[in-house]
Write a structure and sequence with these properties.
alpha+beta, Alpha-Beta Plaits, 5 domains, 22 strands
Length: about 700
């Protein structure tokens, strides 16, 4: 865990979550603004609010480099907000803000993953932000002079301020904080930020409250002096009066024509002439810095955020809370155990043959309640795909700039919901697939697209739909498609073929780009070529219990199809018995079950036993042979066939008998079995049955594939 301010350790997770969320919002706004090439007032205010909130929470946590980075960004957008007329050439802002956002995100990742975190030096980006602010303010020539002055000051050289004069309508106020409130310098800094929302800050003393903790002593003895000018100075005074931990304030001058003198020790007592009432710590006045290190705070919302939330819930209390994902996982595991225990109680062999009407009635009621409990817990874990989908806008935007391709991203179905654990595992696969669509799908030559009857601007499509307990995500482009001749030639050269090249179908050739080590790229670039790392993408999707397939038409485009279950933990399954072993097959993969006779079986020299069902021929997998289980049921008349399907591929499983449908809790195999390729053999996990026995869960995609 990195070093943070004392008393703030418990808040690091909340800080990381809130800051990451705000940075994603910032990216979305800048992407939208860049596309329209204009900042609306709403955009500017929202960006300013994000910068302001991140700065305050970073200051609270003691991350001075992040606080300064967001402070410089806030300064830039303060200038934009105050002088919108100067915004003529604004293209440089986009790259600058994206660069700042990326550095912030990288620092957040370091905070999460490092126990010996060292703050990053952001000197380069800070200089660029200062230069950007100077350009927006129309004082480019002054930027270098200011930089020289700062350098001289840092070197210990004296910089004379001269006699400062302030414009008419300005006001000088000295503020005193409650005794013992601690961190007076940061409280002064946060007060400045609040005043900025109502007025322009002209001057303040001490002048380095943001970075110099030693200024606390000066503020405790002499107060904090701030000079400002606003449209309504009285409203600023009310803001100061109601600020948290402010004990009193004194108006020293109005319409001041000269800088107020440094305070004298005696002035603190005089300031008590106009005491500020002790404020009640309402949400809208909540300071992100706790009054004492022992205060237990969870969030630090800006005033406007809270007001919006209050308007949304104007008639009642807060209706949404944030919960640690580990607690949801624990709740989910407990529900799984309850379902397993319920099954064990109801299916207890000691109850067999007994007439227990009252017990059965109670058991049905219990099952109804556990089903409702499970549905509720699962719904809590379900989150929309909007998060990972919207992140792809940034990928497309950056690649447009670097590759010089004119393309856009179109999104559909981002409100489709899946389990939170699955969403977390989708970010990397989606990023690689979108990159491949941009890098190798969309043509480099615009004229080539026009001649093919396509729009000059290429399109990457990202969509999601839910169907039969699974989510289907497609990532596609309207580019050149896959050159199957080139793919099969390269695969043959790399020794990846397992049968003659002429025996491969077009679909099989297209899916070769998912093989380990396959690549059509002749030159290594910063973006992975189609095939480079695609096997890893496939493996990551399979870890979610999903599948990845490729469909392409040469000259028309390529589509990657991802199919993943809505949730990994609790599934509806059909139990099959093979001798004394129980298998569970997901209901979503079963098309039908039926009896067959031996004379209906077709024996193919290449594909083994097959059976014809309504004009279609399907291979047969004997489960007792597949998993080497001794069984007395070997004749088809004595057992049962179950037709299963996935990714347009179908086979029939042969088992001794069907036991019935059962809701099961998926348990992973023990870690020590990791040395064996169990998943590749066609098993995804196990579950505990009602009688305490173990049932093996069939991994249908891998079983069919292998």
């Amino acid at each position: 865990m990195p070093k943070i301010e004392p008393g703030m350790e418990a808040m690091i997770d909340m800080y990381i979550f809130e800051t990451s969320t705000l940075l994603e919002q910032l990216d979305e706004i800048i992407l939208r603004v860049e596309q329209a090439n204009v900042f609306t007032d709403e955009d500017i205010n929202e960006i300013f609010r994000i910068m302001h909130t991140v700065k305050g929470s970073s200051a609270m946590m003691g991350f001075e480099n992040l606080q300064l980075l967001s402070h410089k960004g806030e300064d830039m957008f303060f200038i934009i907000r105050e002088n919108p007329g100067n915004m003529k050439d604004i293209n440089f802002i986009y790259d600058l803000v994206f660069r700042m956002s990326d550095l912030f995100k990288a620092e957040i990742e370091m905070l999460q993953g490092s126990t010996d975190y060292e703050p990053t030096d952001f000197s380069d980006i800070l200089k660029d932000l200062d230069k950007g602010a100077a350009m927006l303010a129309g004082r480019e020539a002054e930027a270098e002079a200011e930089a020289s002055a700062e350098a001289a000051e840092a070197a210990g050289e004296a910089v004379s301020s001269g006699g400062k004069n302030y414009p008419a309508g300005s006001m000088s106020v000295r503020v005193f904080f409650q005794e013992g409130c601690k961190m007076e310098n940061l409280r002064s800094f946060l007060l400045l930020n609040k005043i900025k929302e109502e007025a322009s800050i002209l001057d303040y003393y001490p002048d380095d409250v943001e970075h110099d903790p030693s200024t606390c002593n000066t503020i405790m003895d002499d107060g904090f002096l701030v000079v400002f000018k606003g449209d309504d100075n009285d409203s600023v005074l009310r803001l100061i009066e109601n600020a948290v931990n402010v004990e009193s304030y004194k108006v020293e001058a109005t319409d001041t024509g000269a800088a107020p003198a440094a305070p004298k020790p005696s002035e603190k007592a005089a300031a008590q002439a106009k005491p500020a009432p002790k404020p009640v710590e309402k949400a809208q006045n909540f300071s992100p810095v706790p009054a004492t290190p022992s205060v237990n705070t969870q969030q630090a919302p800006a005033a406007k955020e809270v007001e919006a939330a209050q308007q949304l819930n104007s008639g009642g209390k807060q209706s949404i809370i944030s919960v640690n994902l580990q607690k949801l996982d624990q709740l989910h595991d407990i529900v799984g155990e309850i379902i397993t225990t319920e099954s064990m109680v109801i299916s207890n062999p000691e109850l067999e043959g007994l007439k227990l009407e009252s017990f059965l009635k109670s058991a049905r009621e219990l099952k109804k309640l556990t089903d409702e409990l499970q549905d509720t817990v699962m719904s809590i874990r379900m989150v929309p795909l909007a998060g990972p989908f919207q992140k792809m806008n940034r990928i497309v935007r950056d690649m447009k700039v670097k590759l010089g391709k004119d393309a856009e991203l179109k999104i559909d179905g981002e409100n489709t919901e899946v389990d939170k654990s699955i969403v977390d595992n989708l970010n990397d696969p989606l990023m690689h697939l979108v990159r491949n669509c941009m890098d190798h799908g969309i043509e480099d030559d615009v004229q080539q697209r026009i001649e093919a009857g396509k729009p000059a601007k290429g399109t990457v499509f990202l969509s999601a739909t839910s169907s039969s307990g699974e989510v289907i995500i497609t990532v596609s482009d309207d580019g050149a498609g896959i050159d199957t001749d080139r793919v099969i030639t390269k695969a043959e050269r790399q020794g990846l073929l397992i049968k003659p090249a002429s025996d491969y179908t077009e679909r099989e050739i297209q899916n070769m780009i998912l093989l380990p080590g396959f690549s059509t790229n002749e030159v290594v670039t910063e973006f992975s070529g189609r095939g480079v790392g695609m096997d890893v993408v496939k493996q990551n999707i399979e870890k979610c219990g999903g599948t990845l397939t490729v469909e392409s038409k040469h000259g028309q485009g390529t589509m990657f199809v991802i199919k993943i279950p809505l949730t990994l933990a609790i599934i509806e399954g059909m139990e099959l018995e093979v001798h004394d072993t129980i298998f569970t097959v997901p209901i979503s993969s079963i098309r039908e079950s039926f009896k067959a006779s031996t004379n209906e079986i077709i024996r193919d020299t290449m594909r083994g036993e097959m059976i014809m069902v309504r004009g279609e021929c399907y291979p047969i997998i004997r489960l007792h042979e597949k998993f080497n289980i001794p069984s007395d049921v070997t004749n088809f008349e004595d057992g049962i066939l179950i037709l299963i399907e996935t990714d347009s591929k179908s086979v029939c499983l042969f088992a001794d008998k069907l036991i019935g449908e059962q809701q099961v809790v998926v348990k992973p195999f023990p870690p020590y079995l990791g040395r064996y390729n169990i998943k590749g053999a066609g098993l995804s996990g196990c579950t505990i049955m009602g009688d305490g026995s173990i049932s093996l869960i069939v991994d249908v995609p891998n079983l069919i594939e292998n």
